[in-house]
Amino acid sequence: MEIEYSDHYLNKNIYYLTGEEFIKECEAVLDEYSGGEVFYINPNILCIIINDFNCTSIASKQCKLFEITSKLNSVTNSKTAFRYMSSYIKNIENIRDAYESFHYLKTYNFFCSDAKLLTQKYINSNKKRN
Question: Domain of life here (predicted)?
């Protein structure tokens, strides 16, 4: 027998509304730079795809990436959300690979706690050293 709460639908609608407002705040930050996409993979995981920056040097690209992740961290009120970075997504078919890469990188989180940003390149370089 299921238990029904009188305010279930109201709470559900409030939950969805706050989720949509959260997405809009993240999209506003992305729009300040080169845009991107924000969506929920599931109710617990928010995915943010950042469009490539129009920069010629790697240093300026890293600087912009640090700026945007700092702003997104303040919006999301999270210190560890931007810990995983997939490889470059060239087309729509690569999104699945990036998603699988995210789950792969999550398994190394405990063992690579000293790294600020986990990437496939970082994991591979540490494997070769050990």
Answer: Bacteria
What's the total number of domains in the chain?
A: 2
Say how far apart CA 120 and CA 40 lie, in whole Å.
Answer: 23
- State the amino acid at position 98 in one-letter form: A
Its domain, for residue 119, covers 80-130
Same domain, 4 and 55: yes
Going residue by residue through the chain, which has 130 residues, state the pLDDT in tens, using 9 for 90 and above.
566 677 777 777 777 777 888 899 999 999 999 888 898 888 778 888 888 888 888 888 888 888 888 888 888 887 655 667 777 788 888 888 888 887 777 777 777 767 666 777 777 777 766 5
Kind of pairing, strands 118-119 and 84-85? parallel
